[in-house]
Write a structure and sequence with these properties.
31% strand, alpha+beta, globular, 25% helix, seven-stranded mixed sheet, 2 domains, three-stranded antiparallel sheet, single chain, Arc Repressor Mutant, subunit A
């Protein structure tokens, strides 16, 4: 994509400070009308506020700038389908999908406003978890004007102390994500971009079980990611072993 932004940790920290330190924007964790993660990313990708929340046709775009439209979707990409269909008729669109690659858990006592210390979460999603999420907009992924940015972040997950367990943590509801650092940006514009992510340790022909093991994701996520990558012509099905479908990198991408 022309003018593709370069990951900038300093600019990201500035965006975090601007959102978190603005007394008019928030009176405390969880009170921001726009969730913190979304607000920080909007500031990071476009500090010029006049470019925020711009009406295009019957929809409002998060950002409209010289490189087209940027839509930041923190969950449920399926909600974007109609909006993307409309925007792609006008210009290039980049969908930013944030993923928490390094997560710390904190619990908020709603009565006292007290936050617990950070505790590192063992969960470590990677790019293939993000690709699996793209299934909900799969039919648009081969549109040349559509670009995907998987934005990998370090963040605190704030949860209310309202769970059913004795310490009120199990079964608690999420309050907010507070970004701390940006770890990576993975841009997907073409079949080649998806294929480049495939680990070299995989054999030439592989099953979803092998893919899941090497990529360190669940079998279900592996199957969904491979479904998406088949649609984008990054991988292709080349047979079966028993009930298992066998995949390989698409012939059209081989030198």
């Amino acid at each position: 994509m022309k003018g593709q932004p370069i990951m900038d940790q300093i600019r990201f920290q500035q965006a975090c400070r601007k959102i978190m330190d603005n007394p008019r924007a928030r009176n405390g964790i969880g009170t921001l009308s726009e969730k913190t993660l979304h607000a920080v990313l909007k500031e990071y990708f476009e500090p010029f506020e006049d470019s925020h929340e711009v009406r295009i046709g019957g929809y409002v775009a998060d950002i409209v700038g010289e490189n087209g439209i940027i839509e930041i979707q923190t969950a449920n990409l399926g909600k974007l389908r109609k909006k993307l269909e409309a925007f792609l008729k006008v210009c290039d669109v980049t969908v930013v999908y944030p993923m928490i690659g390094l997560k710390y858990l904190r619990w908020l006592d709603e009565e006292t406003g007290e936050l617990t210390d950070r505790r590192k979460s063992p969960k470590k999603p990677n790019a293939f978890n993000g690709i699996a999420e793209l299934y909900k907009i799969k039919y648009l992924l081969n549109e040349p004007k559509l670009h995907i940015c998987l934005c990998i972040l370090e963040a605190d997950e704030i949860r209310y102390l309202n769970g059913w367990s004795e310490n009120k943590k199990k079964g608690s509801s999420r309050c907010d994500y507070v970004p701390v650092n940006i770890l990576d940006e993975i841009y997907l514009h073409s079949s080649e971009d998806y294929a480049e992510l495939i680990p070299k340790e995989l054999p030439e022909k592989f099953s979803s079980a092998q893919f899941a093991k090497v990529c360190k994701i669940s079998r279900a996520a592996a199957q969904t990611a491979l479904n998406v990558m088949t649609f984008t012509r990054s991988v292709e099905r080349c047979g079966k072993e028993g009930n298992a479908i066998i995949y390989r990198v698409s012939d059209i991408l081989k030198p």
